[in-house]
Amino acid sequence: MTERLLAHIQAELKEIRAAGLYKAERLIDSPQGVEITLEGGRKVLNFCANNYLGLAGHPRVIEAAHRALDRWGYGMASVRFICGTQTIHRKLEKTIAEFLHCEDAILYAACFDANGGIFEPFFGPEDAIISDALNHASLIDGIRLTKARRYVYAHGDLADLEAKLQEAKDARFRAIVTDGVFSMDGDYAPLPGIVELARRYDAVVIVDDSHATGFVGPTGRGTAEKFGLLGQIDFITGTLGKALGGSMGGFVAGPAALIEYLRQRSRPYLFSNSLSPVIVGTALEIFSWLSETTELRDRLEENTRYFRQRMTEAGFDIKPGDHPIVPIMLYDAPLAHRFADALLEEGIYVIGFSYPVVPKGQARIRVQLSAAHTREHIDKAVEAFTTVGQRLGLLKKPVS
Ligand SMILES: *Cc1c(COP(=O)(O)O)cnc(C)c1O
């Protein structure tokens, strides 16, 4: 038996490698940040982290983590309802709720767990869940854990969403589920249209704002704020593992009674360990910072605008938008991977994305800006892109 499984999986691994889909992991020998050291000592500039606000290695954040460790200890060795809830856990939940203009919030070990735990308590066979075709894997898995009828609408397509709402008219409850920002294109869910349809068809709206909380919208409240819909989204799920410090942790924010019910019934909450007090205490400091000033998200916005403008001027084909996820379209998969390797040689750390992560023929390099990038970092990246682009024949060489 073991022999057969082993042989089977070894063949699968070989196939993954042969198809060029093998995910090799590069080893980093420094804290996360804009300037990182790779194993072996090479220093490179990081342009592919979800470290949007530059907090992952920020001195103020590290100091807050030390303080939290000393004051609250390392871990809780318990789930929340036995002896895993400290005053700071509740304080962070209330802080997140207030930040997002929701009534209450509940913490999870990760947003993957938040999304895995939000559907099954509320929705059963009488209900319908209608999900954007490009939703994150954790939403798809969370929906799979229910016995609800499942509908998938074409990405961002309100007409198709309405057609699915029509089909689901006889359901007891209807839920519309979407990422706030989609990670491969950096595009936004059409929230105003979604909220309008939800009202018309009496549906609950669930938005996963993992790539938005902390920096999208004028004060960083996320996609809802960007569209003037703060307080009008039923549930917002999110992560502490991206802009909000980059460690780990997730949450669901929403109506108080429904959050209360999740504490009774949500399995990843009930049967998984309490979030480390180190993370909780540090997150409180981060939310307090983000409520004091918008300087970090403002700098990120300016960095994004500058990089997008310079790359366009350099002749690259980038997906339009204003999100710090900037897809540099190369279309051809081997080219995208070769391009990323050549950029690393130039000291710029980015990753090529190809099928099945993005559709066939849509290969790209996904750049992610950070508030911690300086003008010089961005200039260096654009120059490296230009050098490699010319070398690989993608950009015309300047006539001299
Ligand atoms: C990253 C991400 C998650 C997972 O978040 P974790 O906290 O790392 O589990 C979930 N949803 C979306 C949209 C994400 O981008």
Architecture overview:
- By secondary structure, the protein is α/β, with parallel strands linked by helices.
- It has 2 domains: 21-50 and 294-391, Alpha-Beta Complex (Aspartate Aminotransferase, domain 1); 59-292, Aspartate Aminotransferase, domain 2 (3-Layer(aba) Sandwich).
- It is built from 15 helices and 13 strands.
- The chain has helices at residues 2-18, 59-72, 80-83, 87-99, 111-117, 137-144, 158-167, 191-201, 223-226, 256-265, 267-270, 277-292, 295-313, 333-345, 375-391, and strands at residues 35-37, 43-46, 104-108, 128-132, 149-153, 174-179, 203-208, 235-239, 250-254, 325-331, 348-349, 351-353, 363-368.
- The strands form 3 sheets. The chain has a 7-stranded mixed beta sheet, with helices on both faces. Strands 1-2-11 form a 3-stranded mixed beta sheet. A 3-stranded antiparallel beta sheet has the order 10-13-12, with helices on one face.
- Helix 6 (137-144) links the parallel strand 4 and strand 5 (149-153).
- The protein starts with a helix and ends in a 9-residue tail after the last helix.
- The model has no long low-confidence stretch (mean pLDDT 97).
- The structure holds pyridoxal-5'-phosphate (PLP).
